[in-house]
Amino acid sequence: MPFKKKAPEEPDFQNLPRHVAIIMDGNGRWAKAHGLPRKAGHAAGAETFRTIATYCKDIGLEYLTVYAFSTENWKRPADEVQAIMDLLKKYLREAIEKMERDRIKMRLFGDLSVLDEELLALCRETEEISERYEGFQVNICLNYGGRDEILHACKSFAEDCLSGKAVPSELTESGFSDYLYSAGVPDPDLIIRPSGELRLSNFLLWQSAYSELYFTDVLWPDFSKEELCRAIAAYQHRSRRYGGV
C-alpha cells in the first residue's frame, strides 16, 4: 500500500486532479504540543485552511472539499464547539466580502438545520452568492457525517417514491448521487488526511469509493502548500483502474 510513502516534491501542474478533499485533523494535538488551549489550535487550523484554499484556486483545481465539523463533534466540550462555530462565522463573513471579487463558489454539505440563526444565515448567503459564478468551488462539510448523508438521501428518495416522483426499480448509482449533499459535484480524486490517523472517519463514504488516499503525520495547522504538492505528486504516480486491469 502507498500510504505514507515519501512522494516526489513537485506535481505536474498540467495534470491536476479535479477534486481534492481534506480531513482537517490535528488541531487539538497541535495546540497541546505548543502548550496552548485547543481553541488556539482551531484558530491556527482556520488560517491553514485559508492558505490551502487560496493555493488550490491559484494552481487551477476545480473543487476542494474540507471536513470542518462532523456530526460526532458535538460530543466535544461546549466551549470548544462554540470556538469552532465562532471561527466558522468569522471565516464566512470574510468569505462573503471576497467571494464576489474573487469569483469563488462555496457550498455547505451537511445538516444545517441545527445551526444557530446567525451561522445559518451566513451559510445561506454564501450559497446564494455562489449561484452567480462558475469556477473554483470550496465545499465545507459542516455538521456532516457520511452515514448520516446516506440516510438523508435514502429518506429523500423514499419520499419521492411515495409521491410518485421516483420508481425504486429505476434507481441507479448516479441517480442516488443526486440525493446526496454533494449532488452535482464529481467524486473526489484524492482524499488527504493529516495528523497520522489512517481512517476516513465517516467522511464522504459514498463518494470515496474509488478515491486515492494520502496520509501524512503532519498536523493540520502545520500543513503547507509544499505538503499539498507532495500529496498531489503521489496521486499522479498511481494507476487508477476502477476495478479493471
What ranges have pLDDT less than 50 throughout 5 or more consecutive residues? 1-7
Taken in chain order, the helices and strands follow as EHHEHEHEHHEEH
Strand coverage percent = 5-15%
Radius of gyration, taken over Cα atoms and rounded to an integer in Å: 18 Å
In whole angstroms, the N-to-C terminal distance is 17 Å
Care to count the β-strands? 6
Strand order, main sheet: write it out: 3-4-2-1-5-6
Overall helicity: 40-55%
Main sheet characteristics:
6 strands, parallel
Mean pLDDT: 92
Shape: globular
Q: Which secondary-structure class do the elements indicate?
A: alpha/beta
Per DSSP, the total helix count is 7
Description:
With 245 residues, the chain is α/β, with parallel strands linked by helices. 42% of the residues lie in helices and 14% in strands. A six-stranded parallel sheet has the order 3-4-2-1-5-6, sandwiched between helices. Helix 3 (78-102) runs parallel beside helix 4 (117-130). Mean pLDDT is 92; it is low at 1-7.
Short description:
The chain has 245 residues and is α/β, with parallel strands linked by helices.
Note the main attributes of this structure.
single chain, 245 residues, alpha/beta
Describe the SSE topology:
Blueprint: E1 19-23, H1 27-33, H2 38-59, E2 63-70, H3 78-102, E3 105-109, H4 117-130, E4 137-144, H5 146-162, H6 173-177, E5 190-193, E6 212-215, H7 225-236
Parallel strand pairs: 1-2, 1-5, 2-4, 3-4, 5-6
